[in-house]
Amino acid sequence: MDVLLNDDEELLRDQARAFLIKESPTALVREVEAGSKDYDAALWKKAAELGWLGITFPELYGGTPAPFSDLGLLFEEMGRGMAPIPIHPTLVAALTINEIGSAQQKESLLPAVIGGYKMLSWAWFEHGGDIDLASVQLAAKVEGDCLRLSGNKLFVDGFQQADQCLVVCRSQSGSTGNEGITLVLVDTDSEGLSHSRLPTLAGDIQDELCFDDVAVPLGNVIGQLHEGGEAAVAMFERAVILNCAMMVGASHKAIEMTFEYAKEREAFGQPIGSFQAIQHMCANMVTWVDGATLLTHEALWKLSQGLPASKEISTAKAFCNERCPAALREGNQIHAGIAQIKEYDLQLWYRRVAAWSMRMGTSIQHRRIVAREIDIVPK
Amino acid sequence: MDVLLNDDEELLRDQARAFLIKESPTALVREVEAGSKDYDAALWKKAAELGWLGITFPELYGGTPAPFSDLGLLFEEMGRGMAPIPIHPTLVAALTINEIGSAQQKESLLPAVIGGYKMLSWAWFEHGGDIDLASVQLAAKVEGDCLRLSGNKLFVDGFQQADQCLVVCRSQSGSTGNEGITLVLVDTDSEGLSHSRLPTLAGDIQDELCFDDVAVPLGNVIGQLHEGGEAAVAMFERAVILNCAMMVGASHKAIEMTFEYAKEREAFGQPIGSFQAIQHMCANMVTWVDGATLLTHEALWKLSQGLPASKEISTAKAFCNERCPAALREGNQIHAGIAQIKEYDLQLWYRRVAAWSMRMGTSIQHRRIVAREIDIVPK
Amino acid sequence: MDFGYSEDNERFRQQIKDFLKANVSREFRAEVREMQGKGMGPLAKELILKIGEKGWIGMSWPEEYGGRNADRIDQYIFEEELVRARVPLNIGNFIEQAPAIMSAGSEAQKKYFIPRLVRGEVTFALGYTEPSGGTDLASLKTRAVEDGDEFVINGQKTFTSGAESASHIYLMARTDPDSPKHDGISIFLVPIDTPGITIRPLWTLAGGRTNEVFFDEVRIPKTAILGEKNQGWYIGSKALNLGRAGAMRYYTYVSLFEETLYFARSNPLGQQLMADEIARDKMAELYCEAQVARLFTLRSLSMIRRGINPPYEISSEKVWGPEFLVKSTEVVSQILGPYHQLWEGSELAPHRGSFPKRYVSAMVSTFGHGSTQVMRDAIARRGLGLPRGAV
Amino acid sequence: MDFGYSEDNERFRQQIKDFLKANVSREFRAEVREMQGKGMGPLAKELILKIGEKGWIGMSWPEEYGGRNADRIDQYIFEEELVRARVPLNIGNFIEQAPAIMSAGSEAQKKYFIPRLVRGEVTFALGYTEPSGGTDLASLKTRAVEDGDEFVINGQKTFTSGAESASHIYLMARTDPDSPKHDGISIFLVPIDTPGITIRPLWTLAGGRTNEVFFDEVRIPKTAILGEKNQGWYIGSKALNLGRAGAMRYYTYVSLFEETLYFARSNPLGQQLMADEIARDKMAELYCEAQVARLFTLRSLSMIRRGINPPYEISSEKVWGPEFLVKSTEVVSQILGPYHQLWEGSELAPHRGSFPKRYVSAMVSTFGHGSTQVMRDAIARRGLGLPRGAV
After folding, report:
1. pLDDT at position D94
2. Which of B50, C37, D27, D114 has its CA at 20 to 30 Å from residue D88's CA atom?
3. Is C271 on the interface with A (CB under 8 A)?
4. Residue C391: what pLDDT?
5. Which pLDDT does position A269 carry in this prediction?
6. CATH architecture of A7-88
7. Is there a single domain that holds both residue C365 and residue C291?
């Protein structure tokens, strides 16, 4: 029991932070956001060279066997540095392939992902934004040696850059909940698969997908046909906790900027940070973001140990969704006028933390999971 | 449109306040609370002499026709002065008798109530604490010229002092919701009716009633047999808004005490009220209690006009339940140590506001009504 | 206590509704969408002039200044209907200087400005804030130096919203550098096209525009001063305080919630989301709190109508309302979830992507025109009589 | 990062559980209920002595002072199990002076007090607060004047909890009236039965007891001073800070929630109330926030184990935990509704009427041992380096 980072973890964090300060300056972040490109290819290449795309993966495929928490710490720095690369969608899909894919699938896919040659995406959510697997209705029909997909997916992350997309679908019509779910890897340029970009608050790349009888070879099914429910939930949960890590990393940066600003900015003849009202806002900000961090770390640690972590993940996400934006809101308040101006950098973090709080489950939805996990739902 | 009190209303308020400062000192409040008596008979007599028990009632019965809002303002002062008399249960029952009772019933009951010779109570809630009329399950069976009552009532206010109790019961077995409800006036010493006192946070008089086949003459039915649903809801709503008025009155007093304390008490070489943190707490306190007051007044006004006020009443109660105790909690924090000591008077108001916030519907229950009234419940 | 509107009030409300129905066209709405953040389009300007001709701008002012001595409640109703009809003419904002002109202006200024404000021909941008200080106006650095019959102005203002379409700037500048901070300040009514004034846009998160305004040897006649020299602080404070009353501001705070309510009732996605009882509980909570915002405004109006200068009640509005707005955006974001991040440009985005825009612009309300912190200071000190701190 | 307990830790936890199962009798629980607010009964004293014999009080201290050099995590586990078993021996509270005695005490004091504290034979009441000032300890007025080999003490303390059953009072008094406020203060270890000490009970809302303690010409030997004369402020501050770490305090903050959770799962009324999804949402929200309280405590422990003196983290515990407790009482009150007001003495009252008692006593956590306001000051200044104000 020692909830602080150990030396190795601190080293990982410090190196990632230093690298991203250098390689992901806000000018680059703004450039990618402005739409000249979907991500920064040079940064992606360097991330692969640093081995970041292989953390937690087997050495066999070029990875570095490390605890999942290391990946979480890396994502904190990705959030802090706002790295404009599709590492979240790529690794969310790749982790599931590593978990349940066949040896052959892993061999053909993972080295390419880890080496930075292949980008992935994952498609989970549908109309309504529900996070319960019961909401997955995209139909997959077995016909000969193909699955034929029909339906829609929403809020699909990094689809435009990806070569393939891991799609969660309902392969047994009439099945409910976790039953009859299949995960299948679909080429993003498949016939019948169209997509349209969703403009977002964070300026990131999300798409709506429309599957019009898209044929996918059965060999692309990841895991067992009809038996993908558990893996789909696990994929969602990893996506959620890595999203929390990014929120936490970005929030720390934004509140630190605010504390510095409060020390320097003067009003009424003294630094605004010397007013008790401002001091108490700052005390709250650090308390909230520290709390979000600890909850996130505990969930990461549980996943690292292979322990069930649904409760911890949803606890972290419910808390992050409410307190990280609240901390940044206080940061805006302390900055006042300039916080609303695009030219000033604070908003880059603010918009991301806000947008991330709206994705992968609301606080209401995650508290519903917490209520289930703490056993207060009457039978 | 003028949401402030008019001259007459201010006069009423000022007179009631001055009277209660004199006649309901905290020594008396403590004495009654300590249990030597259930209420103060002298104060009750004086209240009757002042005509307070007749406000809004017809002159025919000795009352003073005045808008319902006047009664609300009086109850604010009752809360502020913590008057240890059962005016709330008595008038809640009497207002319903005045509304739907027969001329003969009114003639025989109201002059006695208004004159201070008869005390009433009302029994509405049952196990579970629900505020929906569907929760009323106390069975009333018509047998000859009697209703026979079996079942329980909870949290019955002022039953021990009362001569009669207006009981809400379900007279058509199998009916649901507002259907098949009857209001009947039961002598508190009826055979088969037992009661046991519930000790409470506010130290007030509440009882659990147990009806064991209690026979009540049909002539005691107030309003129409089986058709009392609407009147029962109206009775509940009036009880709620008068409860809000009491919370608001008591809260104003408690926060005013706190502001005075903050001006006088010194720490770190200056009045604690000069610290920005304390100032902002005080600013919040007055904002919350003012808000609670305005919501309560709007609901009172609507009732005075004979307009539907379910939405306004539940809005006021949901807000009062959360913000009045919160304001007093801040008041405790500013007082610190002495706030927890029985000897110090602040706690008298604190315990009452807290206890009142727990009665006649939680904020969750009242927001459920608000949601219905603002039409966001899908059909 | 009287929480109702008179028959006259209701008649007037109907008149406004009829006018808006007749005069707010599809084309107008399209222009509003297109011009978002770019200032006012020709149809908007035309509508303001029409409203001005009706005498509804500044209708509660004295007749001699172009007003109609109308009931303030009618003015409240006018503003309420304007916002309810989602006509985003921030009329309240550019007439908030009128009370100061009426109380401190020269006869010539009153004669010139008030009728034109009322007719919508003159609009002011507020030139208070400087880069070095937001709420701390007393520290301002822009200088106005007397030179013969003129003042020469040098300095910079920032967050000067509406400067791109205003006819004048309501400028606070230091006229006596040696006086204590609050005393050496004056206010000037400066035509925005005066040579030496440069306007630079600042783009906001929601895609809207505010400005920096630079003053480089700007020469204005001495008659452009409002009231007495070096008394500008007191004139300005007063206008700021009066400027805070009215329906316009209240609706700024609650319109996001009202729009969400409309969405929850009428949009299929909204109804789907409202199937969740927890979401309904959150909406009901916001409803309750929105009513407090409305009632605080009505309380201030009631006081002003009685001739009472509210000691703290307007500050309460300015604490409760903005914080309600911010809270409501955050709560609604956790009801709409991923739909809430959708910006304009997608069919899927509810309300044409207005939710994220409102989310990021809500913050301005909590520091614009005095931060909620300063408002709480005022409530505690002016309202409750708490002492200033020694440390 | 390591959020797990080692096998050794788990073995130790089992040892404590077994001990408590064997030694916490029905009679003990009855005594606790009966003695509520009246101090400690004979069975409680007996249990403390047994725990002391096991070496579990102050187990993380050095062996020479009667400790066992045990892992602080084991101490955390010990406290956790004690509170989870609802054994209300506030052991953390009366040993929180030990670190100060160990670091500042004379050899004789260490030899005398530490083993006795460890065995549970000596218990301290904290004599800091005076009627004239709560958190502002530096302004204290109780005087200790040298007279030969003695100090003569005059003054008054208040909110001196546990004085009725303590063996000693850990007294802060002014020894130099002319020094700046923080400098002229000393700490004394005073037997509570010293002549001239009078204890008067103060009854609290929940029916518990605290005290006023009066000192009238109380004579104590000079050897009763802890550390150097006039250095008491610094010794006391340190003890106060260290005193804030540990499971005891964390469980004080979350035990109401945990009890409600137990109620929600196992009580028929609780289950009935949990049929409401909104109530479940509120409970889940409290659960999330309770975990933050737990993790803040584990963070402080992790730092102390590494030899780091937490610059602000213990203050964060002391802001979050108490405010969580107060919030949880208020939220739970709106779930239980009228049942929440039922005091002991009714069959209907859930948990023997403990809900309203906890509701009214929750407040003490937000000002006892330093108010949440002062804690926030400390986080901002010591933790974040924000400057002290000039005004």
Report:
1. 52
2. D114
3. no
4. 44
5. 84
6. Orthogonal Bundle (1.10)
7. yes
At residue D391 the predicted structure's pLDDT band, cuts being 50, 70 and 90, is very low
**Pair C146, C210 in one domain:** yes
Q: What is the DSSP letter of A215?
A: E
Residue D253 lies in a domain: yes
Strands C168-174 and C197-203: unpaired
The length of chain A is: 379
Smallest CA-to-CA distance from A207 within A29, A30, A38 is with A38
Instruction: Give the span between the Cα atoms of C291 and C325, in whole angstroms.
Output: 12
Contacts of A362 in chain D (CB under 8 A): none
Helix (H) or strand (E) holding D125: strand D124-127
Query: Pairing between strand B164-170 and B120-123?
Result: parallel
- Statement to judge: residues D200 and D278 lie in one domain: no
Record: contact D361-B364, CB cut-off 8 A = no
Per-residue pLDDT, averaged over D85-93, amounts to: 66
**Given pLDDT bands bounded at 50, 70 and 90, which one contains residue C245?**
low
Contact residues on chain D for B350, CB-CB shorter than 8 A: 205, 360
pLDDT at res. A161: 94
- Tell me whether residues B322 and D205 touch, CB distance under 8 A: no
Express each pLDDT in A174-187 by its tens digit. 898 889 999 999 99
On whether any CB of chain C is under 8 Å from the CB of B276, the answer is: yes
> What is the H or E stretch that residue D146 is in?
strand D143-147
Q: How far is CA C53 from its chain centroid?
A: 22
Residue A341 CA to residue C367 CA, distance in Å, equals 14
ipTM of the prediction: 0.96
For chain A, the domains span 7-88, 121-226, 230-373
Query: Is the pLDDT assigned to residue A151 strictly greater than 90?
Result: yes
CATH of A121-226, one of 3.90.1010.20, 1.10.760.10, 2.40.110.10, 3.40.190.10: 2.40.110.10
Spatial neighbors of C64 by CB under 8 A, at least 6 apart, are: none
| Residue numbers in C near B283 (CB within 8 A) | 315-316, 319, 375-377, 379-380, 383-384
What is the predicted pLDDT for the residue at D38?
65
Band (A167; pLDDT cuts 50, 70, 90): very high
In this structure, the answer to whether residues D323 and D345 fall within a common structural domain is yes
- Give which of D351, D310, D317, D331 is closest to D248, Cα–Cα: D317
Considering only the beta carbons, identify the residue of B201, B275, B363 that sits closest to D356.
B201
B337 and D158 in contact by Cβ < 8 A?
yes
d(CA A44, CA B170) in angstroms, rounded, equals: 72
Q: Contact D211/D200 with Cβ under 8 angstroms?
A: yes
At residue D247, the pLDDT reads 67
Within a domain: residue D349?
A: yes
Mean pLDDT, 10 residues at a time, chain B of 379 residues: 97 98 97 92 97 97 97 98 97 98 98 98 96 96 97 97 97 90 98 96 94 98 97 98 98 98 91 95 98 98 98 98 98 95 97 98 98 94
* CB atoms A269 and C272 under 8 Å: no
DSSP string, A33-77: HTTS-SS-HHHHHHHHHTTGGGBTS-GGGT-B---HHHHHHHHHH
Does the pLDDT of residue C157 top 50, yes or no? yes
Total domains in the fold of chain D:
3
Which listed CATH number (3.60.10.10, 3.30.230.10, 3.30.450.40, 1.20.140.10) goes with A230-373? Answer: 1.20.140.10
Cβ neighbors of C172 (< 8 A, separation 6 or more) are: C127, C128, C137, C140, C142, C185, C186, C187, C232, C233, C236
